[in-house]
Amino acid sequence: MANILTSLTKTIWAGIALTILFIIYYISTGGALDTAFWSTILRYAHVLAGIMWIGLLWYFNFVQIPNMPKIPDEQKPAIGKVIAPAALFWFRWGAMATIITGLLVAHLNGYLIQAITIGLIDGVAKHTAIGIGMWLGTIMFINVWFVIWPNQKRALGIVEADADTKAASARTAMLFSRTNTLLSIPMLFAMASAQNIWG
Known about the structure:
This protein is an all-alpha fold. The protein is built from seven helices and no strands.
């Protein structure tokens, strides 16, 4: 077991294998590979991607940003050159995967247009809730790709920038990251309530 757990790749593949066993069990007990099954698979992928995205968003805001002033200057390059770029990679691609799988789930289940229009077409409360969640998630996605990431590239020195630009970019990235943290709270409630309260 230690051989698996000491390697992230092996750990992930072991998790996938266990999930596949669960799916095989579902099929062996008469489960159909119908629209409900594929909707479940897409929703599962959506939740996994969302955990990656929001987990890293909260890591940045609850752990990294508040603790950076406590790190000695000579140790900060380890964060800026190694940890932050890796976290930002998974952060932005987690956001992309969350948006894509979310749209696919809504399309497959036949409520994409109703959700995009926040339930105004059909007046269904569930579509209003999921639509609000989708729009909040979309704003957050736009912030990640078009504000946070370009500013982080300057702040971390991934692209060339002078000291003043780096400082301004770091502040902009932090403020938009905090905006996303703020939006993540009602966004997650909208998503959860759409499936449970209004469903």
